[in-house]
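B., you asked whether I could sanity-check this one before it goes into the benchmark set. Here's the sequence:
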Amino acid sequence: MTKKLYYDPKCTTCSAVVLACEKAGEAYEALLDATVIYPEGGGQLSDTGRIGDAVVSHAREAADGIWHRIDRPLAVGTTVEVMFDPQPRLDHTQQHTGEHILSGLAKTMFGASNVGFHMAETYATIDLDMPLTEEQLQRLETEANRAVQRNTPTETRVVTEQELESIALRKRAKGLKGDEIRVVWCGGVDSCTCCGTHCAQSGEVGMIRITAHMNYKGGTRLWFACGMRALQEAEENAALVDKLARRFSTKPESVLEAVTKQGDELAALKRTLRARTEALLAYRAQALLEAAEPVCGVKAVVHAEEGFTAQELKLFAEKLCACEPAVVALFSENGETVQYHLQRAEGVQLSMREACEALNAITGGKGGGRDAAAQGSAKAQAGFAELLCQYEGYLKQRLKGL
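And here's what the prediction gave me:
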């Protein structure tokens, strides 16, 4: 077994004996009789560090002790010096202690229970079992930072299974047995069983920021950052607001109002543009239909535009088909791609799904749809106008055969 020295915040290095060393893919794994390197578990990332000259990239706990993933082999039976990398350890303990503070306060303030915790290299999340409002999350963040500023010592006790029953806790892990169950009190606001590493004082967390949140499985998933992660996130947000303020020639505190105003103006312009576009398309639809000759009472309109979106092609086709019996094939070249939309007027029997298959064969394109309408795209190519003439002939022949 491995002696777990990583729980002592004052213990940064130790001497250990190599009990085993095995090949693991392109790396190696070493088992020591003692370590200061925390293994991944309980939602917390593994420490990194060194064992002698070997670099430790990960550690894991197994039934026989803690195995360290290293970049070179170690001789079994030798004594080695073990140390963890201080910056990743500090970051991990800050996030973990911050999670305790947020979870403890969420429970006492709102009755929300932590049902999930995940820490990654660049973010950390907590899942709560009930929805929280924006205002509640702001209060939670404020109270969490007050707990940080009080700089309360973190208390850890190892208790027996019997002692555990008499201790009031926010949360206790299931299936805990034996005489070495760790209980942690963090920030003066949380108590639970925990196997992770923590800051010695809540002030070491630095600051806590709730960076995002969403409804998740009937509750709330919140993203948070502590310490330097929180500072970096705050600095990035401040820089973004400053850029927006300069862009809108306003003060940082007025950025939201400026962006909202521009969004409202843009939405109004889009409505105006859509109305004018519909009026123009109705006028052009009438002109195209007047120029088309009917085949067995149905007009075939094959027409190309430039710069139309797929939605605009669809809208144009609907205008054409609303006027009189017609089958419509509209095309628009956008860069190296030609988009197309096929539609038939109500009462016309020609299948647009089949017509699209024929068009795909002619152009080498891809697309599909239903009998009433279909759409697709093909690569722009020389002689595309001739292909359209060929396709118009195909449609007229099909209309004659109905």
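One thing to flag: The chain has a mean pLDDT of 90. Otherwise nothing jumped out at me.
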